[in-house]
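Sequence in, structure out. First:
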Amino acid sequence: MVEMFLSKLAFSLLNGAVWGLIVSLIALGLTLIFGLMGIINIAHGDLYMFGAFLSWYIINYTGNYWLSYLVPPLLIGLLGLFLEKEVLRPFEDRPEYTVIATIAIGYILQHIALAIFGGSTQVVRNPVPASLHLFGIEYPVYRLFAASASLLLLTVLWLILYRTTFGLWIRATMQDKEIAETSGIPVNRVCMVTFALGCFLSALGGSLAAPIVQISYLMGFDVLVLAFIVVVVGGLGSLKGALVTSLLISILENVLSIYLTPLESRLFSLALMVAILVKKPTGIFGRQTE
């Protein structure tokens, strides 16, 4: 009995860490967009969904898994460039309009996916049908690959943000757009590229998750809810908060799922979010504004 519990616990902890790293990519994209532009991107989950569907399509028709990780994020990133410049920029500094605009974008993406890929659930074949013996359990190698790829990309993103000139521009624009602009930083270009980067990360999360989850045109909603929980609890605009909180919540929900249903586990996460925000309204890593 104890051995069975420990096996379930080990499997849940590993699953939570893997899913937490994938979610952190999505949540980091969301918090970058919000922190820089003040845009609550309701379409973020649907960009994740479209990345997963494009990966499924590429794998089905080419059999090339590497293309499925490269092409969808690039296409969605290019779409992000267009959306920021042509759809969202006219509503700059009007958050209620950007919420409505991103809701509309999300609905459009859902209906495009429904028209092209159909309403039935799709499954991507496991690209690495092997497992490793870890902590007394057999664990799929692909999930470890997805976690490692996510961790590598998070490291690259950190290096971009804190070791490059463009990263300095992003952080300066997050602090104060007006001062950044008067300092010679091309704020509009920074916002456009950063929004595209956020879209890229969401689609990449979908591509990595495609062999793990069932793909449907409504799959973005659950991920959007989880990403918002992560961003709010971690602290709006906090990259460290998004990473740490995504790991904590994903591991917590997976461990709770040993005895609770997925819905009950998610309700527990929501209750925890409320309790944290009551105690610290700015989130765990959020900074109090004057």
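Second:
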Amino acid sequence: MFAPIYTITNKTLRNIGITDAAREVIDNAPLIPAWEAKFRKEAIERTVHHGTHIEGNKLSLEEAKDILEGGEVVARERDVQEVINLRNSLKFISQLASQELPGESSLITVETIFKLHKLTVDKILAEDSSGKFRIRQVVVKNAQTGQITYTPPPAAEVPYLMEDLINWINSAEGKEIHPIIKAGIVHYELARIHPFVDGNGRVARAVATLVMFLDGYDIRRFFSLEEYFDNDPMNYYLTLQSVSNQLVLDHHERDLTPWLDYFVEGVAIELNRIKEVVRRISFDTRVKDKLGEQLTLNERQMILMEFLHRHKNMQNKDFRKMFPDYSDDTVLRELRFLAKKGLIRKIGGTKKAQYILK
């Protein structure tokens, strides 16, 4: 039976506290539907971009956004397909966590992981390797030097190792562990087993996200751990390897503590960042009290309000930088709407006007 070895350090304990406090704020923030939709859309965009970029995808964040919105981008076909595939796997995770897929279990099964792999490598990997455990030995190499940095377990062991892991995820012991710790363990173990010919990193991160969602830790689906990993990919891979390359007689003796310290810190950083943004723009309760109704803002109005919450005031030169593709009249019309609704106030004349929160 799979039994991970790790220690809850003071660092991890502190970051769990930060995460739980941030989760409380985010889950209970009175956000208008338009803001909630905006945050979820941005989380998907960041996850898709950074989740593929860390694996060598050359597309920029803006190019990834264009693809997600159905636009055409001149790029390597594989790069475009990876973005589409990761978007589809995220949709599957959300549907599974929301129980929107008839006949699907709320437990993580080998079929769930096969499905995620199929979605991840669609039109990239040969059909006979898609959604199937590898049947040959693979190695992990340094992309620049070609040096072998990690040798996963033999292919013959993969089905048994995966069965052990899945049983542990769904066991009473697994359900008692904090969702973030559990997600970190699952991420590491999938990366260590390397069950597929290709797509292992993306599947490991996807299953870790699913673990958090199924254990009630979806945080309104506003977060993206992939951005944290991609900000320093060398540290991400070296931390994984530092555990995998421990000199122990049996893989069950590996100490996951360094990886969990790193993983939990990433969750804390990401959720704390989101908490601060949510706090700045959770103004709709005050608006509802004032107007007697909930106010729905359009995209430009939301951007203007977020800027004012962050910078306290705004001048004409600011919104020209924010909206280079729109005329001054268009932006001024949005500002007049916000002023009419009692959200902002104009100070000074037209040319030297400043706008502040009311």
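Remark: Strands lie at 140-141, 148-150, 313-315, 344-347, 354-357.
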